Amino acid sequence: MDDNPNEKGIHQWSRVEQFPEHLKKYWFQRFKIWEKYDQGIWMTEDAWFGVTPEPIANKIAAHIGESAPTEKTVIVDAFAGVGGNAIALARSGRWERVFAIEKDAKTMKCAKHNAEIYGVSNKIFWLTGDCFDVIGRFIGQTNVVVFASPPWGGTEYGTDYVFDLTKMEPYNLDKLYKSFTKICKEVVLYLPRTSDLNQIARYGQEGKRLEVAHYAMMGASKALCVYFGDFNFEVEQEP
Ligand SMILES: C[S@@+](CC[C@H](N)C(=O)[O-])C[C@H]1O[C@@H](n2cnc3c(N)ncnc32)[C@H](O)[C@@H]1O
């Protein structure tokens, strides 16, 4: 698929000379981010900072799929971006419906196009808008899981030794937790690898496990996921 985007702000960079200098490190990682990059992936400049690399997105999709209660058949990706996670969730085949919410229309165009490249664009229901409004339509539906990879507040989040989730911009942990647990108990948040675990632990339920998984690439953690609600990860029994 090589139809050109033809819209300002949406790019299909196929040669290093075209690629913005300040993003150069992503050029060298492009096939680690998208295995099918050269089949015509569309990106915005901002999307490079936030897209979930394909191997990690696949691993997360597998973990959510295996551990979510079986009666959960619908998953909502609240911050779909250019489609990294939504595509992986749709490809997993675990869900009857995958919804992808994104407020930026150009980013959404990229996501739809990228999903076509991966052959799953018809398996995803696309909702352009603010997820905190749009998600209201799922209230009362008992079969839903929410996945959310929010913005982390620019590129500086990595410099803190421990990342303060009360200061995450534009939406902090409390806002995300309260907004999404109104919809369902099962909420997965994709957060910076240095996130303050004590702040996360405050949202744990009495007597219940709260699962946190690091996702690594090339020997280093890239991010972590917090699994709120009744996810069932097999626990190794002590001898
Ligand atoms: C970190 S990126 C998501 C990346 C995505 N997981 C991927 O792999 O492409 C966060 C996205 O959330 C979008 N966004 C920010 N606030 C939003 C909101 N209130 N509702 C919906 N989308 C929002 C941004 O435009 C951005 O594309």
Describe the SSE topology.
Blueprint: H1 24-28, H2 30-33, H3 47-50, H4 54-67, E1 74-77, H5 84-92, E2 97-102, H6 105-117, E3 124-128, H7 131-134, E4 144-148, H8 173-181, E5 187-191, H9 197-201, E6 211-217, E7 220-228
Parallel strand pairs: 1-2, 1-4, 2-3, 4-5
Antiparallel strand pairs: 5-7, 6-7
Helix pairs in contact: 4-5
Bound molecules: S-adenosylmethionine.
Residues 50-52, 79, 81-85, 101-104, 107, 130-132, 149, 151 line the site of S-adenosylmethionine.
Tell me what you see in this structure.
The protein is of the alpha/beta class and 239 residues long. It has 9 helices and 7 strands; from the N terminus they run ααααβαβαβαβαβαββ. Strand 6 (211-217) and strand 7 form a beta hairpin. Helix 4 (54-67) crosses helix 5. The mean pLDDT is 94. Residues 50-52, 79, 81-85, 101-104, 107, 130-132, 149, 151 line the site of S-adenosylmethionine.
Structure keywords:
seven-stranded mixed β-sheet, Trimethylguanosine synthase, binds S-adenosylmethionine, single chain, 2 domains, 7 strands, alpha/beta, RNA_cap_Gua-N2-MeTrfase, transferase, methyltransferase, Rossmann fold, RNA cap trimethylguanosine synthase activity, 239 residues
What is the number of E strands?
A: 7
Largest sheet: 7 strands, mixed
Helix amount, in percent? 25-40%
Q: What name does the CATH topology of the largest domain carry?
A: Rossmann fold
**Can you identify the CATH superfamily of the largest domain?**
Vaccinia Virus protein VP39
Mean pLDDT: 94
Distance between the termini: 53 Å
**Structural domain count:** 2
Shape: globular
Bound molecules: S-adenosylmethionine
Number of helices: 9
Family: Belongs to the methyltransferase superfamily. Trimethylguanosine synthase family.
Protein name: Trimethylguanosine synthase
InterPro entries: RNA_cap_Gua-N2-MeTrfase, SAM-dependent_MTases_sf
Organism: Decorospora gaudefroyi
